[in-house]
Request: fold
Amino acid sequence: MFIVRRKALKLALVALCLPTLSLAQTAQPPIKIAMIETLSGPFANTGEAVARNLIWGLERINSRGGVKLAASNRLLSLERFDNKGQIEESLSALRSAIDEGARFIVQGNSSAVAASLIDAINKHNEREPGRRVLFLNYSAVDPSLTNEKCSFWHFRFDAHADMRMTALMSVLKDDKTLRSVYLIGQDYSFGQAVAREARRQLGLLRPDVQIVGDELHPMGRVKDFLPYAAKIKASGAQAVITGNFGNDLALLVKAAKEVGFEGKFYTFYGNALGAPSAIGEAGIGRVLAVADWLPNVQSAASEAFYQSFRERFPKPADDYVHMRMQLMLEALAQSIEAAATTEPLAVAAQLERASVSFAAQSAEMRRSDHQFQQSLVVGLMERQGSPGVKFDVEGSGYGFRVIKTLSAAQAELPGSCRMQRPIPNQP
Reply:
C-alpha cells in the first residue's frame, strides 16, 4: 500500500496560523482529515482537484485560528492516501488512516469505493467504539448511499444522481425540438444509476422522446471513444445524456466532435477536467452541465469566492472549484466546535443538523438520511465574454452560463433511509 503524504503541506497549514496563536494554543496536535482518493492513473486529475479544494478550505479555517475548543484551538491537517481507484487499496488506506489517528475520512470520486468504505466503517465503529471515524462524502452520488445503504457514520455533501438528473430534466423537458436521446455511461454503480434514472424521468416527463442507444462502457479503460461516438451519430440521436467524468468524459466529447456529432450533451460533469477544451467550438450552446455552483453564478460573493481560489491556484489546469467541499469543511468545523470535542459520535450528532452559509451559498444536512440539501444550477457552454459568461474554464476560452437555478427545496427528493442511530451514551 503506497500512501501519499505531504509533510510540507501539513507544516505550511500549521505555520500559517502561528503568528496569531499562543504557544498554549499550538501545543495540541492538528485534527487529521484523511483523504482517500485516486492520485495516480487515468483519474489522477480528479483526486488532485479534490486535494486543491480541501487544502484551500483548510487554509482558510486555519487562518482564523482553526477549530475552537475549550482547552485550545486546534488546526486541521490533510493526509493524502492514494487508492489507485481500487476498492481494496481504499480499504487498506482506511486502515492506515485510522492507525495514524485520523477520525475524519473524506472521499467521493467513486460510488463503488464509497459503498465499500461505508460498510467497512460501520463494522469498524461497532467493533472498536474507542476509535470511531466519520465518513464525509463530497462526490459519490449513487442514490443508494443515503437511501437503502444509509449509515449514521456517513454524510453526503453532494446532490445525488437522481437530484442532479432532476435538474437536467428540468431543462431537457422544455426542449420541444428534441425527439431522440442516447444514454452512455461508466459501467459501475453510479453510471448504472444515472442511466436508470434517465430512463425513468424521460418516461414521466418526455414519453415522446425515443431512447435510441443505451450502453455502459468500462470505467477508465477506454482509450479510443471513436467507435462509441460513431454509434451515437449513426443512431440519429439529437442529445446524449451521460454521467461520465474525468478522462472518460473528455475523450467521449472529443470523439463526438471528431465524428461530427452535432447534438447536445446533457452532463453531470461537462464543465471541467478537460471537457470544455476537448469539445471546443462544437460545444457552444450544446453542452449542458449540472452543479451545486458554477463560477458564473452572478453575485458579488460568488465572484469573490471564485477569484480567491484562482489567486491561490493560478494555473489554468487547476481551475476546478467545488463550493460543496467548502461547505463540507465549514460544517465539520462548526460541528466540532458545537460538540466541544473531536469524538466522532458527538460530532456526528451535531453534523446531522448542520446549517451552513458561505459565499452567499446556504445549505443544511437532512437528519433523516444525512443527505445535504442545497441549491443546484444548470449551465450552458458559451464563449467567454458572451452575456453571463465572465469566467471561462481552465483557460479554454469557454465558460458556462447559468440557465436554470433550483432552490434547495426544488432540488430536494424524498428518501427511503431507515437510519439506525447508536444508543445514546453507548461506549
